[in-house]
Amino acid sequence: MAGYLENYTILLVGEDTAGIARIAPDIEAGCAALYRTAAIAEGIELCRIHNPDIILASLHLSDTGREETFVFFEELGAERPVIVMGSAEEHDDLTRSLLHGARHYLLHPFGAGELLRVLGDIASALYYQRQYQDTHKLYEQYKQAVDITNIVTKTDPKGIITYANEQFVGISGYSRDELIGHSHRIVRHPETPPELFRELWSTITAKKVWKGVVKNRKKNGEAYIVSATIMPILDEEENIVEYIAIRQDITELLNQQHLITQQTTDALTNLPNREKLLMRLKHAQHPNLALIDIEGFRDINELYGFEMGDRVLVKVTGAIADMIRPKGYELYKLPADEMVIFTDSANDVSEFEGAIADILCHFHNTIIQIGEFDISISLSAGISYYKSNGLNHADVALQNARKQKKHYKVYQEDYQKKEQIQESLHWHNMIKKAIREDRIIPHFQPIYNTRTQRIDKYESLVRFIDEEGETISPSYFLEVAKKYLQYELITRIMIEKTFEYFRDKPCEFSVNLSIEDIFNEHTVAFICEQIEGFTEPHRIIFEITESQQIDDYNEVCLFLDKIKERGCKIAIDDFGSGYSNFEHIIHLKADYLKIDGSLIKNINTESESRIVVETILLFANKLGINTIAEFVGTKEVFDLITAMGADYMQGYFIGEPGKDVLSAQLFEKPVHIDHPDTTEDIS
Fold first, then answer.
1. Would you say the pTM of this structure is higher than 0.70?
2. Which helix (H) or strand (E) holds 135?
3. 32 and 6 Cβ atoms separated by less than 8 Å
4. Would you state the torsion angle of the CA atoms of residues 277, 283, 286, 289, taken in this order, to the nearest 10 degrees?
5. Tens of pLDDT along 408-447?
6. How far is the CA of 484 from the CAs of 427, 473, 488, in angstroms?
7. Residue 351: CB partners within 8 Å, gap ≥ 6?
8. Which of 268, 378, 435, 548 could cross-link with 579 by S-S, CB 3.0 to 4.6 Å?
9. C-alpha distances in angstroms, 3 versus 7, 25, 102?
């Protein structure tokens, strides 16, 4: 079938005398759905019910004359392509059909191949037309999002302001009338060097984009700092017609820079700390990492005191920093007496190991003098070259070096392989026994409605009860369950128990599904069967993680269509973490968008997270999708998310996951939220 016809539905209108019976099977085999009728009246009704994408009509209709046929074409042709079938003798009628809205015609006799080619071409044109419409709609939304979330101005070629958005009016303190017709000197701060503006004008008048940081002044004299991008707009003859400037207020960000530096710097040595190292490792391509500690450092603290221990650390780290500086290596200070030497290099690893060996040799039984004391120092190290879990691997290698009384060891993958296999088998047996003894259970976490101030939804979360009665989070056992093919059974248990629990409850509830569940035809059949047995499917929400690993969106959409046809709702979970595709969300037609907790939990202190969340909320609001903020752990976050306009909230500040939900009576009353501040959520 040519083009994209398999994605579209067709209405075939005409009597069998026009060859309808001959061509119908070929069409039906290639399109999404085929609807047939011989009469206009029924054709109009089928259009109303099924809204077909393409109309294929004969001039031979059983219930009408020629004029009514042309009216039929005119009405349908305004919304969708109409193809008319007729003979050469009906040339005048075919011409009138085209004048009344039909887009194409076919002359009898024609073969199935010719018909399918025409249908395929039309389907392809429909596809690209709708792609363009979707893209244009997204463009308009993005443009609006830029205008809402940024400080935007336009000026004429002489720098006179011709447009100022609400953000600029708000931050500058000037009215729009005070800004329009003036240059940006009105907000220029006297501390901003003139050289910056000379560079700016030199760049943009040369028809290039200028980027930089500018200090401005509000009407009340208060300073604010913006990150600015200024772009010249050119006409067809490459003449500058105006400039557009887009700015972000980074005042708070810069004010926090000192605090951020403190958070990523070791106070004793002024070296970057563990947090900084972890950030560095995230982007490393070829990490070479040596974890070093001072042997017997606890004895130094106990014998000489902690102040002397601190002085030893300063002395040792200073000496190591001097030794590695010529090589361009980086030194990080970790808690206690540990430190890390790091470089991101694809060079021969023997060079890195040689440098570490030289450092260890230099400090072997070295005496360093601090005040009146001579202190003997020796170091040991663990080395890792792994991109993932490099710090953990280096620690394993360090422990092995100590056990074997070596100066250093390089991590080998088989160090942990045996332990991992034993641990995996242990959990496999525990899961198998828990399933047999019915110890896989759901816990329910409340979801708070910010508009009604009530809890009207719950998320069902899987829990494992061990033999001592302790509740185990899924992070400990779900991956093992997938590895040993127990995951499908756990999914069934969770769905069955959750549906049964909420059968007589008045609230909505959600169940998590993974991509493995959606692509498992047995699981999908089980889900549909359970929905059929539930009297109020509109209360059921299925949560799907929006992930980069979703390669076959057609398969996902087919599953979601099945769910929605049965009256259930869809929530996209963890949106905003890692890879998140706004276009996919549009196609998935979700009812709820759950904003990932990594963005929410520190939104009151992280301006970047706040900007991302504002964009997601705006996007969802424009599409009519309800939003749920996860990991709401403190009152500050609760108040901020409420002010930002999220529809729902979930987290420990709202309520912890538990075996039971609130009593039915409480659903009629506003919920008083008064929980201890915490950011820990169990997922």
1. no
2. helix 112-149
3. yes
4. 10
5. 999 876 655 666 667 778 888 888 888 899 999 999 999 9
6. 10, 18, 10
7. none
8. 548
9. 9, 18, 20
